[in-house]
Fold:
Amino acid sequence: MGLQDIRDRIARAEADAGRAPGSVTLIAVSKVQPLDRVEAVLEQGHRVFGENRVQEAQGKWPDFKERFAGVELHLIGPLQSNKVRPALELFDAIHSVDRVKLARRIADIAQEIGRAPQIFLQVNTGEEPQKAGVLPADADDFVAECRAMNLNLRGLMCIPPAGEEPSLHFALLAKIAERNGLTGLSMGMSSDFERAIALGATHVRVGSAIFGERQAPTG
Structure:
């Protein structure tokens, strides 16, 4: 496993699905990874990374962004309203917008600071009560509300339930996106990204298969 292996697998999956080479963006999920592992991937030329927490990203990425040109940072974890401003200042895309109140806060601050990251709306395709995301039945209305706020709306994101066939959830997300005229599909992780690519993923989120198993923070 490693970065080149994942790149090769993505290229094969694109070809198998009849999609153009390079049509899928690989987000290297660097959350809770030691800095030396992240730096090694940066030195291999990769520039698109995903983080779960604003605070962790604040401590890690300003330095890397100074040293490595062209870094693109994606927030893939939940965003609290009180972290919107620093998130918009640091991240180029936010994949976890899941409620109207948060969307409105993002719209207000984006206008204030003149910076509008790409937005993906999180859909709870499994309708799991413990998981963030708008329910599939409410997704069309949510898209319409976010468009009315002039958000930089790129697409939809989902995290399929553990233990269920992810392809069913990827297909559902793709269907919702298509009927709403959205082209971005953030779906697929280390264990299932090839299936996500077959069903139209534009962004796949891969961590442990690139960096090795995550290390929990100490202290």
About this structure: DSSP finds nine helices and eight strands in the chain. Residues 3-16 form the longest helix (14 residues). Residues 1 and 209 are 6 Å apart (CA to CA). The radius of gyration is 17 Å.
